[in-house]
Amino acid sequence: MIKAVVIIPARYGSTRLFAKALLKETGKYMVQHTYEQVKKCRNVSRIIIATDDERIKKAAQSFGAEVRMTSPKHTCGTERIAEVVRSMPAGQIPYIINVQGDEPEINPGDVDRMIDGLHKTGVDMTTLACPIGYKKDLVDFNKVKVKLDKHGFALWFKRVIKKESLKNITTSEVYRHLGVYGYKRRSLIKFTSLAPTPSEIANRLEQLRALDNGFRIKVILAKDAHYGIDTKEDYMNFIERTKIIKGR
Fold first, then answer.
1. Chain centre to alpha carbon of residue 87
2. Residues 145, 175: contact at Cβ < 8 Å?
3. What is the CATH number of the domain that holds 180?
4. Phi and psi at residue 212, in whole multiples of 5°?
5. pLDDT tens readout for residues 126-166
6. Which residues lie below 8 Å from residue 71, measured CB to CB, with a gap of 6+?
7. Which class for 170: exposed (0-12), middle (13-18), buried (19 or more C-beta within 10 A)?
8. CB atoms inside a 10 Å sphere around CB 172
9. Are the CB atoms for 173 and 147 separated by under 8 Å?
10. How many domains does the chain divide into?
């Protein structure tokens, strides 16, 4: 079995949807849905929820998750998971997957494929993307876009595509980024030792720090085009999908 650890960063002070890790209108905490999806992965030997808040810690412990408390000063989820990784012996975790706590519909098979990519290809960093199914996603600030080169590496990530550029872009060449990342341990430590870059800060996209510093990000095309939960509307749509599944 490939040894990979999934660390789920979950902070209380989320800005676009406050305290979303603890939303429970489905009967389960949001972060619990994510945790239970990850438990289905075949290549994952350990799952840790990394948080900065005792309320999330208590909730995670209520459903049996391993929890690590981390600093409230981190600027992104990757910095939070790196704090956990640095406290663990290097040989225990050659591969780390960062699955944000707001990914309750993450496909376990896609996570496994990211781990396979790290293990078999020798790349230092992987992420997920899927085809853009709706034209409106091209102009949605909350739906991050990624363009790939011919080898499947990321050329750029953007939240907003300028109107004058839209006419030259089709949904077949730009993909919707899914905010899940895989790292080799040394790459994660190196990435988080670098200062945030101006483009990362301006766009609130931590992956831009990697591109700005010469990292190559291999993009794995997901088989399941799920949506993360960024807004109240996203969460309400998730609740409706959950009801449909329960009703089957």
1. 21
2. yes
3. 3.90.550.10
4. -65, -25
5. 999 998 877 778 888 888 999 999 889 999 999 987 766 66
6. 52, 80, 83
7. exposed
8. 8
9. yes
10. 1
**What DSSP line would sit under the chain, residue for residue?**
---EEEEEEE-S--SSSTTGGG--TTSS-HHHHHHHHHTT-SS-SEEEEEES-HHHHHHHHHTT-EEEE--TT-SSHHHHHHHHHHTS-GGG-SEEEEE-TT-TT--HHHHHHHHHHHHHH--SEEEEEEE---GGGGT-TTS-EEEE-TTSBEEEEES---HHHHTT--TTTEEEEEEEEEEEHHHHHHHHTSPPPHHHHHHT-THHHHHHTT---EEEEPSS------SHHHHHHHHHHHHHHHH-
What is the spatial distance between Cα 83 and Cα 92, in angstroms, rounded to a whole number?
15
Q: Are 43 and 109 in contact (CB under 8 A)?
A: no
The answer as to whether 62 is a domain residue is: yes
Q: Which domain holds residue 83?
A: 4-225
pTM assigned to the model: 0.90
Residue with tokens 């870059």: 197
**Residue 143, amino acid:** K
Whole-number Å distance between alpha carbons of 14 and 118:
30
Q: What is the pLDDT of residues 168-187, one digit of tens each?
A: 666 567 899 998 999 999 99
